[in-house]
Design brief:
Elements lengths: L37 H27 L8 H10 L7 E2 L2 E6 L6 E7 L25 H18 L5 E6 L9 H4 L3 H4 L3 E14 L2 E3 L3 E4 L1 E10 L3 E2 L9 H12 L1 H4 L8 E10 L5 E2 L2 E10 L2 H21 L3 E8 L4 E3 L1 H13 L3 E2 L12 H6 L2 E9 L19 H21 L15
Parallel strand pairs: 3-4, 3-5, 5-16, 6-15
Antiparallel strand pairs: 1-2, 2-4, 6-16, 7-14, 8-12, 8-13, 9-11, 10-12
Bound molecules: zinc ion (ZN).
The site of zinc ion has 5 residues, from loops.
Length: about 450
């Protein structure tokens, strides 16, 4: 896996002044955010409301024709066209659409292009029938980004907006790594990145924009338990890897409950068990796969080695062997405190209630942007009261209501204006360029 570039803050000089413009720049996490630019946000929200009907239609279109990670070219070009730039530059199967001045500092908003390999189970006429499904709400995010982008194109804005149409959020290697550190993204002079994800654990009309770590680091583990196969009637001449693997699964559970500080969130889930082909045969090997989620870098390192040691020692007790290999996924998603504070005020102005910060052991490759730029991931509520058991993210029947398109767009615009006010205090009070017709 590629290693993301180091965090470089706001691109300011050591004395806190912007190298290119000589303006004071707030360093991530320091100082108070500038007051939200009420007039700019109001104008953007008014323009956005006119874009919503077309975006809802686009959401249905994207939902009906989803594409899997690594194959999102049609989705990307459709969204780029809706943003007013069908020829926007590509980065693998993603696109970058810049709205506003062609050079100088900018603020980016990320939306994911990919769907999941699920057979959709919703009753709507625009349900997918191609074996892929937007069961994570990415269709909503994309449609909402066209609302935000078109509003900024129409009204103008304090800083250029770069729409990051990102591929492969759901897969590995992560599509965020296509963008982070790429020459195409570096050329955009990005000073802050905003992400928004729908979330069914938050009620409609509410948004979580908590500072600090909100999502876990994610790794995948594959454990191969090797035994000696043979006839099920003569187990004494075999070394049964199924029995050994069963004990490995149980033994691994103590690593979280007994070996990890209970004040440090961590999860180890074994998600697949592959073993055998017949009821009367002891197989040669069993393959387990699982996911490991942590918030503390030290826990991540120690659990990798503890998983290997525990699996190996447990299998050995059954005269089998176990080998663990790891695929490192995204780091902890760490929201910039200054962006979070500024966004809270803008969200209220956008008619959205700021919810209690949502922190979970979920993961998102938006975390890679946090390693390079001050970044903020917000979670927009799509939950209904009394419907806690409704299908959630990644369920084939998950279907956010259509009003979510406008809610997500409003959150994106609030995040954009908030980021402008933090990156260049004072600039957000005015419009940085002449609006364009769309
Ligand atoms: Zn998602």
């Amino acid at each position: 896996m590629a290693t993301p570039a180091a965090h470089t803050g706001w691109g300011s000089t050591r004395d806190g002044r912007d190298a290119r413009y000589g303006q004071a720049v707030v360093t991530a996490g320091q100082g108070q955010p500038a007051a939200p630019a009420g007039a700019v946000l109001t104008a953007l929200l008014q323009a956005a409301s006119q874009e919503v009907p077309a975006a809802v239609a686009l959401r249905r279109e994207l939902h009906a024709t989803p594409e899997l990670g690594g194959h999102e070219t049609r989705t990307a070009s459709r969204v780029a066209a809706a943003l007013g730039e069908p020829g926007a530059p590509s980065v693998t199967t993603g696109r970058l659409v810049r709205i506003g001045a062609a050079s100088g500092p900018s603020v980016a908003i990320r939306a994911e292009l990919d769907a999941l390999p699920l057979t959709e189970q919703t009753p709507v006429a625009w349900a997918s029938r191609n074996g892929a499904s937007h069961s994570c709400g990415h269709d909503v995010h994309l449609a909402a980004l066209t609302v935000a982008g078109r509003a900024v194109r129409r009204v103008g804005g304090p800083l250029p907006l770069v729409a990051l149409l990102q591929p492969r959020e759901e897969g590995y290697p992560s599509g965020a790594l296509d963008l982070v550190g790429s020459p195409q993204l570096e050329a955009q002079d990005i000073r802050a990145v905003i992400g928004v994800h729908v979330h069914p654990h938050i009620l409609c009309g509410q948004v979580s924009a908590g500072p600090g770590p909100v999502n876990a680091a994610y790794d995948e583990v594959t454990i191969t338990v090797q035994g000696r196969g043979g006839h099920a009637a003569y187990p004494h001449v075999t070394r049964d890897p199924v029995l050994a693997a069963a004990h490995v699964i149980l033994a691994l559970q103590h690593l979280i409950s007994r070996r990890t500080d209970p004040m440090h969130p961590a999860v180890l889930t074994i998600g697949t068990v592959q073993a055998g082909t017949a009821a009367n045969v002891v197989p040669e090997q069993v393959v387990l796969t699982g996911s490991l989620r942590t918030f503390e870098p030290a826990d991540r390192a120690s659990l990798w080695s503890a998983v290997s040691a525990t699996a190996g020692a447990t299998a050995e007790a059954y005269e089998c062997t176990a080998q663990a290999t790891f695929t490192q996924g995204e780091p902890v998603l760490d929201n910039d405190p200054a962006l979070a504070a500024a966004a809270a005020a803008c969200l209220a102005q956008a008619g959205l209630r700021v919810a209690e910060p949502l922190r979970s052991c979920g993961s998102d490759d938006f975390a890679y942007y946090c390693t390079r730029y001050p970044s903020l991931m917000m979670f927009v509520g799509v939950g209904q009261p009394g419907m806690q058991d409704a299908p959630g993210l990644h369920h084939p029947a998950f279907l956010p209501r259509e009003e979510a398109v406008e809610d997500v767009a409003r959150a994106m615009l609030a995040g954009y204006v908030a980021a402008c006010s933090v990156v260049l205090p004072g600039a957000a009070a005015g419009l940085g360029w002449a609006p364009e017709s769309v």
